[in-house]
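The freezer alarm interrupted the setup, so I double-checked each line after restarting. Inputs confirmed:
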Amino acid sequence: MKCPVCGNEDAHYIGYINKRPYCRKCIAFGRTYLDESYPIHTTPLIMTDASYHLSFTLSPRQQFISEQLITNYENATNSIVLAVCGSGKTEISYAIIKHVIENRGRVCFTIPRRQLCIELHERIQKDFPHLTIGLLYGGYQENNDAPLIICTTHQLYRFVSSPFDLVIMDEADAFPFYGDDVLNSIFYHASQRYIKLSATLLEEDIHDECVMIMNRRYHGHDLPVPHIYIIPQFLWAASLKYWIKKLLETHKRVLVYVPRVSDAQYYADLLKDTYRVKGVSSESPYLNEYTKDFKEGLLDVLITTTILERGITIEDVQVIVLEAGDRIFDERTLIQIAGRVGRKIGYEDGRIVLIDDHYSKAMKGCIKTIQSLNRMSV
Amino acid sequence: MYQNHSISQQDVCLICLSSISKSSSFHQLFSHHCICSSCLSLFKRIDIKTCFEGYPLRILYGYNDFFRTLLFRYKGQYDYALKDAFLDMYKRELQIRYKDYLIVVAPSASKANDVRGFAPNQAIAMTIHSHVFNGLYKKVDYKQSDQSYTQRAGIRDVIGLRGGSFLENRKILLLDDVMTSGETIKTCLRLIEKENPQKIEILILAMKEKYLVNLGIIKQARSI
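Predicted 3D structure, all chains:
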């Protein structure tokens, strides 16, 4: 027996109601009886205008990948785009979205995190002015029969019975999608063809997809390389103050990453007499407000957990990672964090300071990967 | 002989679906638990024994986020297998204590049960023993949890009892999952009293601390 939604076959995860088997692994997405067949519906779509405009022109490499995605789609090949942070991953998928929708297909753009969904919806709606776009995340849905849907990876379960012609997944390496069997299985069930976009997928994540690499940001500058400072623990507070002071001399904002939720508030209290500073985490109610204030320059320093590791673009920002050797900062996370720096034209450079009392494999791996990306000539 | 039999070697936790290693404690050699220790620790066990309307009342857990999620998964997402999770740690004791009792379950709307495919309270009661009486029913589709605290007395006109003669001269254990204002329980008690049972006791799975204080069961100062 196999669950039609999540593909579970393990007898441990199968429950019985009046002797009818049901899947317990994906119970959070609604109860599925294993003996039932789930017909696949298709709804014919009317022709829609999917024209878009971009505020900049694609670089030759972006243009090439953009066209290659369409060729792959036509050849029924799945694609993976490995693109460094801030290289304009979203924009290269516009052409394929237009192509599929104008051939009366349905497209889904999916991201593991809810906050990114909302931002992406705003951004894509602005660029595709004539298109109705659906938005779905936990507790919210609008236009869920539109030709283009933007949703969290959790919401894909709604579309298992009516798979998309194309699912584009951004940040394919992010929690909670990465490494979750149920979500992955739902993703494959909800898509006939897919494109994964990511900065930091590892080799074992790549199967038979066509892989394309983009190692340059659209402004063409090198990626900033992190620097490691080994400092004993009792001096962390002092060195944090030193670096913030130093970085603020030349730049406007500093983003500080800490490993634990409690640390965010601790360091925010420590610095609040000297700077305009706030601490945020997944548990803080004002996460969005503080992030917005920070972007607008109302705060000098924002102290955050890995909740803000990806997806956000802040002009002219410098990064400090405290306790960078902690388990939570694995290589992929550090690369993402380093990717916050130097995204905007005019602020291509910046510093990434990693502070801890020991080296970790992840820190070294992150620096090595970034350096090799900078050397690569694609 | 059984070492290659995967299911006998390894059990999964009913709640978090991760595997429970069987040899982790001496205790587990003698009793079979279907919940792993980390999930067990998330239950807030209070086990208060007190009086309600003159009848002995026992409340097993505090109603915390974990319990809310668990109950939702059971009743709202229809995960029937969870029925064994709620009384797991009290099972043996309850089975002995209430051996010759008839368990009367508080009613749930029959429409909802049709969708679920099972009656939640009844299924939990069945894990103690199978002398379960389900004659209490709701006349209309009415959800107590949708009502405000003050409106909850309205439940009085909604619950009915069929086949009440079974209750005569029996020891009764009235079981419900969550108690808030106590109105549902009160209504059930009134209906059961009419049938002259020998004895009534009440068993509640969980209750919010706030309402425990409201009903005078615990004092404000004591934190549970």
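Quick read of the result. Residues 60-214 of chain A form a domain with the Rossmann fold fold (CATH 3.40.50.300).
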